């Protein structure tokens, strides 16, 4: 049983890491961006060699279906993982140890359950509140609202969405999965089966925060329970004999933890599941806080990186050409690129509190 639980922990950790890779910008200079580029460059050829073209194509089709079609697999996976994890915690932790150890009383059973309900409420709101769909009726309103963001680089005035046949407001994007234009588009989230945009971004943030807070609560309460069990059973006062050498030694935190893990295997397992969730969700939440501080969306950050990569490459080529031979057209193009570069990097950092004020003032 221990081997199965360790395998599940390994699978959850790997799955969380791979999902974070999928969400990472391929042009990012971070470690995750570098790993993603390596995997996306070399991964397909390695998979083809290992499994053959047919299996590779099936895996590719499954990947595209999960991440690039409007299906309910993400919502189903959310309910299965989240509710199953909470049910395990209730059975092996809350009902068994809360109130029975010196550090965790039954009040934490109530608090944990209330936070769980909040998580489900914010998930429901994120799934059901419109992200801010732009249509012919409200097109002019959104165009005026984001007029100051037209920079003629990322966002050009009077650009038409050929699918929706409307003028594209600055900061909007046509989502090919939902087939609608979304105001202040951030990203399409498979877990809630819709886009995250102007109107539901606040609920998405609360969705992330409530889940990471519940995970942290579960980790802290769990370890306090384990510590209480150790004290209650006087495990720190015992001496331990090495089965091989016969050496007698005093109790250490590691030895006590191994003893408790052997006795409370399922409870320790679910505590580590909570820890994995907490680390993953905290990384996403801090990322979005940073985006709010910079007044950027995920879509804008990716577009900005794409533009910068393209501009840097072209400017480098033009500068080399200017050194070899003076050319008026090249000089004009270089000056134009430098203006575009300055335009991309001139947006002010608004600060986290002003950003929160804007995000939470948006209508539902």
Assess the beta-strand content as a share of residues.
5-15%
Widest sheet: strand ordering = 1-5-4
Structural class: mainly alpha
State the low-pLDDT regions, or none: none
Shape estimate: elongated
Distance between the termini: 47 Å
- What is the H/E order? HHHHEHEEEEEEHEEHHHHH
Percentage of residues assigned to helices: 55-70%
Q: Using DSSP, what is the number of strands?
A: 9
Number of helices: 11
Oligomer: single chain
Main sheet attributes: strand count, strand direction, barrel closure: 3 strands, antiparallel
Rg, Cα atoms, Å: 26 Å
Q: Estimate the mean pLDDT confidence.
A: 84
Protein name: Palmitoyltransferase
InterPro entries: Palmitoyltrfase_DHHC (IPR001594), PFA4/ZDH16/20/ERF2-like (IPR039859)
Membrane topology: Multi-pass membrane protein
EC number: 2.3.1.225
Explain how this protein is built.
- This is Palmitoyltransferase.
- By secondary structure, the chain is mainly α.
- The chain has a three-stranded antiparallel beta sheet, with no helix packed on it. Strands 2-3 form a two-stranded antiparallel ribbon.
- Strand 8 (239-241) and strand 9 (248-250) form a beta hairpin.
- Among the domains are: 133-184, no CATH class; 302-346.
- Helix content is 65%, strand content 7%.
- It is built from eleven helices and nine strands.
């Amino acid at each position: 049983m221990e081997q199965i639980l360790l395998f599940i922990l390994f699978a959850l950790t790997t799955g969380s890491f791979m999902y974070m890779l999928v969400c990472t910008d391929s042009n990012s200079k971070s470690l995750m961006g570098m790993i993603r580029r390596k995997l996306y460059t070399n991964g397909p050829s390695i998979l083809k060699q290992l499994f053959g073209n047919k299996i590779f194509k099936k895996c590719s089709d499954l990947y595209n279906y999960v991440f690039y079609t409007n299906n309910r697999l993400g919502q189903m996976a959310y309910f299965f993982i989240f509710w199953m994890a909470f049910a395990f915690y209730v059975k092996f932790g809350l009902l068994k140890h809360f109130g029975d150890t010196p550090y965790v009383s039954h009040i934490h059973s109530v608090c944990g359950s209330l936070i769980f309900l909040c998580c489900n409420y914010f998930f429901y709101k994120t799934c059901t509140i419109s992200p801010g769909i732009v249509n012919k009726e409200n097109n002019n309103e959104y165009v005026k609202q984001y007029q100051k963001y037209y920079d003629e680089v990322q966002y050009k005035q009077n650009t038409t969405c050929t699918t929706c046949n409307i003028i594209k407001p600055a900061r909007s994007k046509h989502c090919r999965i939902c087939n609608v234009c979304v105001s202040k588009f951030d990203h399409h989230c498979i877990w809630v089966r819709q886009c995250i945009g102007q109107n539901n971004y606040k609920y998405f943030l609360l969705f992330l925060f409530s889940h990471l807070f519940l995970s942290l609560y579960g980790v802290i309460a769990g370890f306090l329970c384990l510590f209480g069990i150790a004290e209650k059973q006087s495990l720190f006062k015992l001496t331990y004999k090495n089965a091989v050498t016969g050496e007698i030694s005093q109790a250490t935190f590691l030895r006590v933890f191994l003893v408790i893990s052997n006795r409370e295997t399922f409870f320790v397992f679910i505590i580590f599941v909570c820890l994995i969730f907490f680390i993953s969700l905290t990384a996403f939440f801090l990322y979005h806080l940073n985006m709010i501080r910079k007044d950027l969306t995920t879509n804008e950050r990716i577009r900005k990186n794409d533009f910068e990569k393209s501009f840097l490459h072209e400017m480098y080529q033009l500068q080399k050409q200017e050194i070899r031979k003076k050319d008026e057209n090249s000089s004009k193009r270089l000056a134009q690129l430098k203006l575009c570069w300055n335009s991309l990097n001139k947006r002010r950092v608004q600060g986290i509190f002003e950003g929160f004020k804007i995000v939470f003032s948006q209508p539902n």
